[in-house]
Design brief:
Layout lengths: L1 H32 L11 H4 L10 H7 L11 H8 L5 H6 L2 H20 L14 H18 L9 E2 L3 E2 H19 L11 H32 L3 H6 L1 H19 L3 H31 L10 H23 L6 H22 L6
Antiparallel strand pairs: 1-2
Helix pairs in contact: 7-8, 7-9, 9-11, 11-12, 13-14
C-alpha cells in the first residue's frame, strides 16, 4: 500500500510537470506567431501620465495602508506578544452582528491555546507573519504539546534511565532553541529559516487532529456499545461522515472560489491517501505491536458489497469522465449522490440481516 501511494504521488508530480511544460511551450509558440504585440501595463495611458492604476494595487494592501501609522513606530516585544495572542480583530468586531460576537467569545479560549502552540507563516503578508516573541515561544510549547498529546500522552511521563523525565529533556531543548532564535533575530525582519516554522505548525496540527480523531473514534465506539451497534454500522455512518465532513466542506469551498480542478484533485487524493497510506501505516503498526500478520474478514456478504461498490464507483467514474471530455456537470453529481444512497441502504440492510445469502 505504501509503495502504491509513492508511485501515485510520483505519477501525479511527473504528469503535472509534463503538462505544465507542454502548456508553457504551446503558449510561447502562440505568442511568437501572433502578429499583434502584447499590451503591457506600461502601454496604458495611466502609466504614460505617471499615474498608477488602482487596479494594480491589491485591495488588502490598500485596506492595510489606511491603518498604518504616519510616523515610524516600533512596537515593543511585549506588545507584539500580546497582540499576536489576541485573536479578535477590532475592525471586524465593530462590523459583526451580536451572534457572531457571542460565538467568537465562546471560541476565544481555544483560539488562544492554538495561537500559543501552532506557528503560522503567511506568505501574503510583508513580514510573513513573523512574531519574534511568539515564534520563540512556539519552540517551547509546540514540542511539549506533541509529546503530551501524541497517543494520549503515552510518552510524556516516561523516564530516561529512571532518573530524568522525557518532558524535561524536551523542555530544555525548547528553551535552548527559543533562546537562540530570540537572541539572533529582530522584531522587524524574519530570519531566513522562518519557513521552517510552517513545517512545525503542520506537525503540531497533524498531531492535534490525530488526537481529536482518536477521541472521536472512542466516543463512537462507546455509542455503539450503548446502542448495541456493530463496528460496521458505525464505520458506514457516523465515523465515515465525521471523517469526511471536513474534507467535504473544504472541497465545496474551493470549488465555489473558482478552483474546481483543485477540488476534484483533493477528492480523489484524499481518498487515495486514506486508503493507501492510512491502511498501510495502520497495518504496519499493528504488525509491529502484535508481531503477527493482519487478517481481514473476507467471509460474509457485506465485505463483498463494500469492495464491489468501491470498485464499481471507480470504474464508472473512469468511464463516464472521459466520455464527457473531462467536464463534470450536474448530472454526474446527482449520479454520485444516488449511487452513495443506494450503496448505504444496501449495506445497512445487509448488516441488519434483511438482505442475506
Amino acid at each position: 500500500y505504501l509503495a502504491l501511494y509513492v508511485i501515485y504521488v510520483l505519477t501525479v508530480i511527473i504528469s503535472a510537470f509534463i503538462y505544465n511544460r507542454q502548456k508553457n511551450s504551446a503558449n510561447a509558440t502562440v505568442r511568437s506567431d501572433s502578429p499583434f504585440p502584447e499590451l503591457n501595463s506600461s502601454d496604458s495611458s495611466d502609466d504614460e501620465d505617471g499615474i498608477p492604476s488602482l487596479t494594480d494595487v491589491p485591495v488588502q494592501q490598500i485596506y492595510e495602508s489606511e491603518y498604518r501609522p504616519l510616523l515610524p513606530y516600533s512596537e515593543s516585544t511585549s506588545h507584539i506578544l500580546l497582540s499576536s495572542l489576541n485573536p479578535v480583530d477590532n475592525r471586524r468586531w465593530r462590523r459583526k452582528p451580536l451572534s457572531w460576537k457571542v460565538f467568537k467569545v465562546l471560541k476565544l479560549p481555544l483560539e488562544v491555546l492554538l495561537l500559543l502552540c501552532i506557528p503560522v507563516v503567511d506568505p501574503d503578508k510583508e513580514d510573513r507573519n513573523w512574531r519574534r516573541p511568539l515564534n520563540s515561544l512556539h519552540l517551547i510549547t509546540a514540542p511539549l504539546v506533541c509529546l503530551f498529546v501524541f497517543q494520549s500522552g503515552k510518552y510524556g511521563n516516561e523516564m530516561i534511565q529512571d532518573q530524568f523525565p522525557v518532558w524535561g529533556l524536551v523542555l530544555l531543548l525548547g528553551l535552548f532553541l527559543a533562546a537562540i532564535v530570540f537572541c539572533t533575530t529582530t522584531n522587524d525582519h524574519p530570519p531566513k529559516y522562518h519557513p521552517l516554522f510552517a513545517l512545525l505548525g503542520f506537525v503540531v496540527s497533524a498531531v492535534l487532529i490525530s488526537a481529536a480523531a482518536s477521541e472521536v473514534v472512542s466516543l463512537l465506539h462507546m455509542l455503539g456499545v450503548v446502542l448495541s451497534l456493530s463496528n460496521t454500522v458505525l464505520g458506514l455512518t457516523l465515523l465515515a461522515w465525521g471523517n469526511s465532513i471536513g474534507d467535504c466542506f473544504a472541497d465545496i469551498t474551493i470549488a465555489q472560489q473558482g478552483y474546481p480542478r483543485m477540488a476534484i484533485s483533493a477528492c480523489f487524493g484524499g481518498i487515495i491517501f486514506n486508503m493507501l497510506l492510512g491502511v498501510g501505516l495502520g497495518c504496519i503498526g499493528q504488525m509491529i505491536q502484535t508481531k503477527s500478520n493482519v487478517q481481514f474478514e473476507t467471509e460474509g456478504l457485506l465485505t463483498w458489497i463494500l469492495a464491489g461498490s468501491l470498485g464499481l464507483s471507480l470504474a464508472l467514474s473512469f468511464i463516464i469522465i472521459p466520455l464527457n471530455n473531462f467536464q463534470l456537470g450536474r448530472k454526474y453529481g446527482i449520479f454520485l449522490l444516488v449511487f452513495y444512497i443506494i450503496f448505504l441502504v444496501i449495506a445497512l440492510l445487509t448488516e441488519f440481516q434483511i438482505i442475506h445469502t
